[in-house]
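Office hours follow-up: a student asked to see two folded examples consecutively, so here they are.
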Amino acid sequence: MKVLMIAFGHPDNVLTLCKYLTRSIDFNLIFFVSGNIYEEGVLSIKLDSLNYGLNSYEDSLSILPVNIRDYLGEKFKLRFFRTYDRKLLKDKGLRNLRKIISLIKILKKENYDLIHFNGIAGFIIYFLVFLLRNKKVWTLHDYIPHYGEENKKAFKFQKFLMKFNRVL
């Protein structure tokens, strides 16, 4: 079985889960990042050396701290997808959309049996539209936002996506 996870955050659990799935199936991870620095959980990395769009396995692994690379092992298949920013509706010149469409073309050629979305980002809409025939799974973190972390727009978007649970 050939599986792809597209992750929009939560590196602590994503990297651990992926490490163990890699042992038993053909597993790939594409991690979405934006900006020049990514800091969340166990990851604190500079993104300056990455291209916008999908990066190679070698370039992606090279920016990880040595202790994370050692933990993941040599067979781990990770690629970073760098976006210009995380704003779906303020995509000036549709730069992010163009990069995502080129990613979708690559994913269709790589022919995955299952695509697992981990986390949430507006970009998920593009995948739902352009990858209709692929089997999909979505892991939703924080169904109800933690106190102090409420984001009304994100929560409404999350509720909207949950209505399409048969599509995912």
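And the second, which I mentioned at the end of office hours:
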Amino acid sequence: MCMHDQQSTRAKLLTLYAEGPDAVVQFFELLLAEVDELKQIISKQEERIATLEGQLKQDSHNSHKPPSSDGLKRTTKNVRPKTDRSSGAQPGHEGTTLKMVSTPHHVVKHAVTACSGCGRSLGRLQSKSYRRRQMFDVPTPRLEVTEHRCEIKECPACGKTTTAAFPAGLTKAAQYGVNIKSIAAYLMHYQLLPSERTGAALSDLFGCCVAEGTLFRWAEELHTKLETPEQTVKEQLLQAPVLHSDETGLFCQAKLHWLHVNSTAHLTHYGVHPKRGTEAMDAIGILPRFGGTAIHDSWKPYFSYACTHSVCNAHILRELTFAHEEDHQRWAKDMKQLLLRIERSVDNARQRQQHSFSPRSLRRFERQYDRVLALALRHNPRQRGSPHRRGRKKQTKTRNLIERLRTYRAAVLAFMYDFRVPFTNNQAERDLRMAKVKQKISGTFRSPRGADIFCRIRGYISTARKNALAPFDALLRAFTDNPFVPSLNYAE
């Protein structure tokens, strides 16, 4: 403060002093009110700074953020212990080495016409034996045209003219067949090429110019044919003992929508909706009727359904990593080690053909869990709100994690109680991964109809692949009115 300001302040204080005690008290009351207001502002700013600093410290190894958000700085750490096994195929693996076949499609003979020693002609001499080498390749792709001619005959007895019928599906004078449709669907919905590049690929490979509108009509045709398989998958998912559920953002008409997946190791269903929560899940119609164990990322709307719940422990482990490394919480490391130890015990029990732990083992693990949780609660008491501020005090990220570990203990340890429940929700996350690739390539869906078509076809392809059916074969079956449908007696 400069000398002039000091003199000015001194003069004001002397003036107040001269006015008497009431003026001094009033001045200090106003001053204390301003100090309280500044304290509240500073407190809010400190909370905001702490939140922003926490966000800057988050990456894929200690939060829900995907590895792609790390940029060139890769910090992902493998939580699995190292083994002595070398990389690559292990002993006993059959391998995929290219081997000769006994019946090749074509045989090309290379004759010996002259002796390599003296040059004498050997053209008429019978060969003693031969050596073989085989080349594997595909024939040059080209479009073939098949003309269907239906005979027209006139009966000599009654004079009536009869015309033979065209094959089912052949309704136009010139049209594409199911093979080219299946290839287009394979490129668009499995390899995720945009419609323009799909048309370019068909032109380059087969010499046919297919408009984007035609590609969309083929997709609509396939969407209609797959209605029954999709309904069957939904019914099968309802019967599954364990269901993986997750959601991710997906842009449609440049607006944020949500892609919801419900899946198992053999079934996949996708649904897109403008909303993320229960409104979308109710509209999809799987979780409201599901009675098994649903695995998810502990997002609160999932817990509104009456099924048994299990949370993804991969998310829990990453949050514990953040609490240990950034907030210096020792208990977080202990909890992380405990969960991984229980996971290893479950894996060992499965290998011994066990289906559950003994009650004694369960109680031991539960006591260890409760002991670590009690330590966490002691070191992270609930923050009390100010009497001068309305509403509850915002808790720290670590405290919120502790609350979830306490409130949803049964869901965190569900994999311990039921060996059919996986430790993580990786199945659902793998099923969503290609949808993110689709968005990176195409940016957004032009219409909700296009998003619905993509979801149904992609779910059908995913289900077929999980049941060892090649995507192209599955699409060809669908276009020929023989789509792949999981058995209604399917059991996980």
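Two things to take away from it. Residues 313-383+394-417 form one domain. The beta strands are 152-154, 161-163, 242-252, 255-263, 268-273, 293-296, 308-311.
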